Amino acid sequence: MLAPRNARSPLTYAGLALAIIIFIYYRPWSAATSISTFTGKSSITPANATLGFGGLYVVSGPGSPRRQHLEEAAAVTELQLRIPTQATWTDEDVRNFRPANEAETRVLTGSVKAWLSHHLVLREFLESGDETAVIFEDDIDWDIRLRTQQIPLAQQAAQALSGAPDLDTKQYPWGLPTGWDLFYVGHCGDYFGDVEKGTGVGYSHPDQLANTPHVLYKDPTMLPRTDLHPFTASILTAFNIPDQTRLVHQSKWPLCTFGYAITRRTAERILNEIAPAHEDPSRNIIAYDAAILSGCRDGPLKCYTVTPELFHHMEGESLIADMEATERQIFRPPVDAAGLEQVKYRKETSNIACGFFDGSFYYNGDQDRLAYLREEVGRKGKCLKGSR
Ligand SMILES: *[C@@H]1O[C@H](CO)[C@@H](O)[C@H](O)[C@H]1NC(C)=O
User: Fold this and answer.
1) Which of 48, 168, 263 maximizes ligand 1 atoms within 8 Å of its Cβ, making it the mutation to test the pocket?
2) Is the pTM of this model over 0.85?
3) Of 99, 274, 348, 380, which sees the most CB atoms within 10 A?
């Protein structure tokens, strides 16, 4: 089981971090890999089409305009998605969700419907017999090297954290599903505290990380610090993490639910206990993601976060074409607002190095173009954009 690191060893933070990195590099089951694995000339095996989970499920409303682009991005990366048919939630469904005294409700109608849509997908996962699943929202973006590099590296970190030496890593690439309840692979940041009160340098300190079970690992696909979302850059700096290094750590304050992996038991607990489809106003929870956050931060769930995240939600695709108009109309939560200038400048989604947001890798049904993109972009990981 995981023990806080400082309870185990008198090593300094830096020394122990180095020891853990070396431990990842040289663990026996990865004997075939070497440091070169972590610098991009990789002999690591790509993750399978469901990223080593039982299935990839998507919450996508009827007639969602994002659907075609999501499916095209998945085809280029060769991901196998399941997109359950969503219900059109009625006023009555919304009323049934709300407390008996509707005036006490804290959840806006749109958030009630999103909540119910997540439930529908959780039930479909439970009916499938899959042992684990990732639940995605349909506006996610990811890097073209997701399957070939990012996921295999994150899996190795998860295995190291699981502390099970004779783990069957083919069957359980993310560690035994009895060892974790939820993995945040897509989120808007886990800033180890309330983002509204401040994040990163000046708020967090290496001790905070040292007291949290975690593993560091090199990921050559990671953006340089100056191109990361400002909050992400700041917390990595506050923790004194080297460049091109990710963390898998026990979740502290994970925001948003656009990519979370769960086990069957977790799905049942979310439905019945963590985020049931009936509002309890005394909990003061305003949305589904806040209920999951609370299940991770305050218990009972055992959750882990990959930082920086491997999936991030896209800004509306009209952003680049029509920046000013979009800005006037849309209210953005603080994390999105802080990342907006950089998204415009980079023409990429926050924390994604080479993704699908700018439309370069959509193929509009053209099968020849798909075959080309699959090979060059998906498998070889070439970012065929402008000068890159
Ligand atoms: C990917 O690997 C996981 C874990 O071994 C397995 O459950 C899943 O069925 C595999 N997916 C595919 C598409 O083969």
Assistant:
1) 48
2) yes
3) 348
